[in-house]
Structure formats: structure tokens, C-alpha cells
Amino acid sequence: MMKGHTLFNWVFTFLAALVLLFIIAPLAGMFLDSSFGEVRTTAADPAVRRSVWYTLAIAFSSTLIFAVGAVPLAWIMARRSFPFKKVVQGVIDLPVVLPHTAAGIALLGFISRDGALGGAAQKAGIMLVNNGAGIALAMAFVSLPFLINAARDGFAAVPERTEKAALTLGASQTRIFFTVSLPQAWRSVVSGFIMMFARGMSEFGAVVIIAYHPMIAPVLIYDRFNTYGISAARPASIIFILVALGFFVLFRVLATERRPIFWREDDAAN
Amino acid sequence: MLRTERLSKRIDAFSLKDISLEVAQGEYYVLLGRSGAGKTQLLELICGLTPPDSGRIFLEGEEITRKRVQDRGIGLVFQDLALFPHYSVKDNIMYPLKIKKLSLTERVDRVQRAAAEMNITDLLLRNPNTLSGGEKQRVALARTLVTQPKILLLDEPMASVDASLKDDIRRMLRRLNRSGQTIIHVTHDFGEAISLASRVGVMHNGRIIQEGTPLEVFNHPVNRFVARYAGIKNFFRATFIKSYNSCSGITEKRTKFRLPGGSYPSAGLLIIGSTEVLLSRQGAAGVQINNIHGIIDDVVPSPTGFEITVNAGDFFYADITHREMEENRFITGEKVIVSFRSESLRVVGEGDERI
Q1: Nearest to B338 by CA among B292, B274, B281, B273
Q2: Domain locations in chain A?
Q3: By CA distance, what is B46's nearest residue in A?
Q4: Which ranges of B155-279 does DSSP label H, i.e. alpha helix?
Q5: In this structure, which topology does domain B2-229 adopt according to CATH?
């Protein structure tokens, strides 16, 4: 559609290129300013390795655990109408607009020893503050809207008639959810999962208030910057960006590849 | 078999009102009506997808008004068919059988039998998105039929089928009905009703306004709406004047009809089928023959020949065959005489409907 050398096309292309350059230039600059040796040495640093591993593991677990509740919530938002639905949608979107440090403070009150959840967890022998569990909660708090909203759009796009047809064919609500709704919406659900994982992985503001230690990668980068300056923080940033990018691309490829995700017992009958 | 008692349901501004219908075992019942008449909503009430506000539903003598959809034993094929796009054709058909926890061999056997019956054996491994409208229709039917429903509800089953394949589907549905399957079929096409129904119910604005065999509905439409649905175009609002042994009807445009003896209201609608209107240049003789002078307004080809519109103050529509056209060569602007027997004229009520 955008063919021809019209002034409109030139202006739009120029403006688009400026924005892209704005994203690429700082990242490219960071790569160019660091030597391969520096990056290799930093990559071998056990503290850096540990923080990257923590970040990935905690972000993934947090996404996985919270998906158990977020996906049903997304389905309800897509399929049911109820009073104050718009208010509920506002609550879901709230973490996106909150300053993340403020979110961290709010969460800290909730999960510290004196808080409702923190107190209960402590009785069970779990310390949430300065702990991986606390970090997972902080990551989930700020990244849940990405999963819920993507999954909600996915469920909303499933033709309701297919669910009704399954009812007339004798299926229960639970069976319909797992055999009709979820398989048709799974691309959106997985896409939301990836977005939540990616967003959780890069969270700094809320996490740093809940737990400076164990150090996840964004906190470690900040710590290196504060302690040793930009030249020390740069190689750690490069490593984390590469790892995060690698996982992001991997998940995207896995999610968009066309292959049967839902195997069926009677495929042998083919 | 299936009976509904004063079934009512309000959905936003629209409402189904006092629907009482009875469908006998083995019957092919066609619900005829325009889109928006409430046909689909009625099917959803019968199969339990939406609960009625009032009224009751009975199936084989048992009240099922509050029974779960899954337990009613009613099969419904949606207008858009609602095939599961993430399953193959085979898995679509097998879906209800898995719920019944049948053994794998039993399931495979039933799927193969249904596929053979619907002539879709070679499509079993295909994805529904790659099928034509007619093929999808067969798959949806097979998927519902494997549940062995007591009654089969079809919502506009010809809607997504190419015109050339409609005959196939019609034949298949007739065969299915002959084998004992009770069917309620929803359509907006009177032709479909004529070719399939043992009984027809005409729906309009959430009500069933006429019921009967297709012939009864065609020959004795209760009002102008049903008559127009039945393909009748010649309508004349007339005032009736009685004389000694006959009666006349006079329209606002002063067209005078000679009517057979009998009792008539003071005013009403007169209808006459387009095939019963004859055109000639000299008129027809006989006491009970109406001869009305007019000018040909339009000549339009029709599937069976031509439809000729004659302006005689009031407009008359006449269907003539190709042979008649070859013999007479009627042309637009030509003076002709419209003739029909007075027995061909029927008086119908206007009902609530004015079109």
C-alpha cells in the first residue's frame, strides 16, 4: 500500500527511522564501547552467572505459578459479564501505571513480617523479604497485566459458537475450557506468558525494594554501576541483554512454530 | 416427541412470545422466517443453551425445561457450523464419542460409519479450514449424528453451501429423515421448506404465525407476510361488494375483480398466484373469468421462463413459460389483457404485518 515516492512516504519513513535509531543507537554504542575480553571476563564471574541464573529461574517460576490463576481470570474477563467489570479491568491494569518503586513499597508492606502474607509465610517458616520468593512476587506484581490481557484477548477471539457446540455435544465446562477454548487461544496465552516472563526478568524498581539480595541481574548491574562506574556495569549489561534476548527469541520461535502442542491419545488411530 | 408450551424469552429489545409447537416422531418440521424472526433463539431455547423466561419444553413426554444441555439428547448444527478449527475432521467427529468414554475401537468404528454415511471418508485427516462449505456442513452433521440425538436441530443448513451442492444436502437430509430421524430445520427459504418439510411453521417477530403442511401454507396463507413469503406477488387491498349471487372486489385504483359466491368481509386483501395469471391480446371467455386491460411494464427472465409485470392501475405479475413467450412475444409497452379465474383469487387476513 505504501508504494511510490510521495512526500508522505518520505516523511513517515524518516520519522520511523529516527525512532528506530533511538532504540538501536544506545544499545549499539554499549556493544561498541566494550571489548570482547571485558565481556568474556565478566561472563566468567560467578556472581554475574549466578545473578543471570537467578533472574531467569525466578522470572520463569513466577510466570508459571501465577499463570495458574491469571489464565482463568483472563477467561472470566473475556467470557463473563458481571457488575463492576470495568473496575476489575482497571485493577488488572493498575501495576502498569504505578511507579515500580511504589509498587515495591506497597508489596513490601504486604509481604514483610508485619504484613498479611508475610506474617502467614513466616509462620510456615518462609521469609519472603530478601528471598527468591519475594523477588518472584515483585516480578509477578508488575508483569501480570501482560499475561492477563494477552490471554483475555485470545479467549475473546475464540468463536463462542465452538464452545456452545461442545456443550450440545455433551462436554462439561471444564472439558470445553481445556479442549476447545484454551487450544484455540493458546497462541495468545503463550505470547502473554512470554511478555510476562520478559517483563518480570527486567524488573528492577519493585525487586530492589523487596530484595537487594539474592542479586538478580538488573540489581547487579545497578550495584556494579554504583560501586565501580559505567565501565564495570557495561559488560554485565551486555551479557544480560544477550541472554534475555536469546530466551525471548527462543520462546517466540517455539510459540509461533506450527506444530501440534496438544497431543491426543488416539493420534495412533490415524 | 417434542412439545413446547407457551415458551417465552426476552433478549434485549427482542422477545420470543408464547411459542407452542409440537413435532411428532419422524417428522421434518421447517421453521420458516426472515433473519431476526427469532428462529435461532428458539432452537437455542429448545436445546437448552439459553433458559426460557417462561413456558415448558417436553421431549418424549419428559419435561426438559431445566435439564442441562449435555443431558437433553438434542443435536444442534449451527448456521456457522462451529467446527473445531484446531482438530482434524476425524477428531471433530470423535469429540462427542470421547466424552462418552467409548473404547478406541468403538470410537473409530462409529466415526468411520458416520463418515461413510455423510460421504466424507476421504476428508477425515483434513483440517476443517481447508474444506468447502458443503464439506463442512457434512462434517458438522456427522459430528452431531454420532451422538444419536433424539431430535436434530438444523440452523440454516444451506446457508454456507454453494447453490450447485444444495441438492446434495437436501437429498442427504431427506434420506436422514426417512431413516427415522426427527428434524427441526430453520430457514428463510420457502423453496427449502417446500422440498423438505412435512410441516412448516412460519415465524415472524418472535411468534409462530402459521403452521401446516407446505401446501396448506402456500394455498391458504394467513396474512400478507406469509403470502409474500410463499412467493405470491399479486396483492390487492379491496373493498367487497355483494350482489345477488356473486361478489365483486374493488381496489383503490378502481380495478374490479369478479369473485365467486361466498361470504366476504367488507374489506380485505386479495391474492393470486403469478402462475395463475394469464396474458393475451384478446382476453379469455367465460362467466367466472376476470379480464383486465393493462400495459406491459417489464419483462424479466425467471428460472422457468419470464415474469411479466402489467400496469393496469394496479400491478399484476404473471409467470409465463418460454414456449408461451415464443408464441406471443410480449414486449414492454404493449397493451395486453390479464385474465384469471375468479376461483384463483383468495382473500387473506392482513394480520399485524404490513409490508
Answers
A1: B292
A2: 50-257
A3: A168
A4: 166-178, 190-196, 214-219, 224-229
A5: Rossmann fold (3.40.50)
Size of interface A-B (CB pairs under 8 A): 68
The whole-angstrom distance between A181's CA and the closest CA on chain B is 10
**pLDDT tens-digit map of A121-141:** 888 877 777 788 899 999 999
Which of B70, B84, B147 minimises the CB distance to A162?
B84
What is d(CA A147, CA B52) in angstroms, rounded to the nearest whole number? 37
Is A50-257 a domain of CATH 3.30.420.10? no
pLDDT of residue A267 exceeding 50: no
Q: What's the one-letter identity of residue B33?
A: G
Fold of B236-348: OB fold (Dihydrolipoamide Acetyltransferase, E2P) (2.40.50)
Could you give the CA distance from residue B308 to residue A205 in angstroms, rounded to a whole number? Answer: 81
User: Do A168 and B125 count as a contact with CB atoms less than 8 A apart?
Assistant: no
- Let me know: does B41 contact B32? Beta carbons within 8 Å: no
Residues present in chain B in total: 355
The model's pTM is 0.80
> Which residues on chain A place their C-beta less than 8 Å from a C-beta of chain B?
159, 161-162, 164-172, 175, 179-180, 183-184, 262, 264-266, 269-270
CATH 3.40.50.300 residue ranges in chain B? 2-229
Query: What gap in Å lies between CA A145 and CA A95, rounded to an integer?
Result: 7
- List, in sequence order, the alpha helices (H) in chain A: 7-33, 36-44, 46-79, 85-97, 100-111, 116-123, 132-157, 160-168, 173-176, 182-201, 205-210, 217-228, 230-256
Asked if B125 has any chain A CB less than 8 Å from its own CB, the reply is yes
Report the C-alpha gap between B256 and B253 in whole angstroms.
9
The order of strands in the sheet holding B28-32 is: B74-77, B151-155, B182-187, B28-32, B199-204, B207-212
Residues of A in contact with B47 (CB under 8 A): 168
Contact B85 A184 (CB under 8 A): yes
Tens-place pLDDT, residues B264-322: 777 778 888 888 898 988 877 776 788 999 999 999 998 888 999 999 989 999 999 99
Average pLDDT, chain B: 87
CB nearest B143 (choices: A169, A180, A265): A169
Q: Highest mean pLDDT: which of A264-268, B89-93, B246-250?
A: B89-93
Mean pLDDT of the B18-36 span: 90
Region(s) of chain B under CATH 2.40.50.100: 236-348
- The average pLDDT across B213-225 equals 80
Å between A252 CA and nearest CA of chain B:
20
| DSSP classification of residue B55 | E
The C-alpha angle B78, A162, A196, rounded to 5 degrees, equals 160
Q: What is the pLDDT of residue A270?
A: 42
Gap between the Cα atoms of A187 and A198, Å rounded? 16
Residue type, A258: R
